[in-house]
């Protein structure tokens, strides 16, 4: 199977939209703006040539992490599978470029970021007796919440390694 893998550097153009399907699978999407910059010899400065927009799709754990980590205007690097969609709306033909993301991260050439590892809960046994023993008779079993986004303060001290 031939797939077109791409790496796109750009800025988050829309707030990530998180959705959870009835079957429990989660997805998130956002628009990515990637501007081409060229050296303008006459002005002797860099200038934007044109901007391409992509719809980035993230699935499962990546979707939750995208919503908790990304905001509009932030520089990111997205790697994934390029998919060109064609559809007709109101009698007009529309083409859109989608990226099914494999990996998304902040572009560290343009700023700093703080990484927090997300631990995935272990699946509990299906047997109620073993489940009660595993979590305790009075404990509630709840799905993990999407962590609140806490942007690092500018000039904040980096955590020790």
Automatic annotation (TrEMBL):
GO biological process: DNA replication
Xref: Pfam families: SSB
Keyword DNA-binding: yes
GO MF assignments: single-stranded DNA binding
Tagged with keyword tRNA processing: no
Alphabetical keyword list: DNA-binding
Subunit annotation: Homotetramer.
Protein name: Single-stranded DNA-binding protein
Provenance organism: Streptomyces klenkii
Taxonomic lineage: Bacteria, Bacillati, Actinomycetota, Actinomycetes, Kitasatosporales
């Amino acid at each position: 199977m031939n797939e077109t893998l791409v790496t796109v550097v750009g800025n988050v153009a829309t707030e990530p939209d998180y959705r959870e399907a009835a079957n429990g699978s989660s997805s998130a999407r956002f628009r990515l703006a990637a501007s081409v910059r060229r050296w303008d010899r006459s002005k002797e400065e860099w200038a934007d040539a044109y901007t391409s927009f992509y719809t980035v799709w993230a699935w499962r754990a990546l979707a939750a992490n995208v919503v908790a980590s990304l905001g509009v205007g932030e520089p990111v690097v997205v790697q994934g599978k390029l998919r060109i969609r064609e559809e007709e709306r109101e009698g007009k033909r529309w083409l859109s470029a989608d990226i099914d993301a494999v990996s998304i991260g902040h572009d560290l050439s343009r700023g700093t970021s703080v990484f927090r590892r997300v631990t995935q809960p272990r699946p509990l046994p299906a047997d109620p007796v073993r489940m009660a023993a595993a979590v305790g008779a009075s404990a509630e079993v709840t799905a993990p919440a999407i962590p609140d986004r806490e942007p690092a303060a500018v000039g904040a001290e980096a955590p020790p390694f």
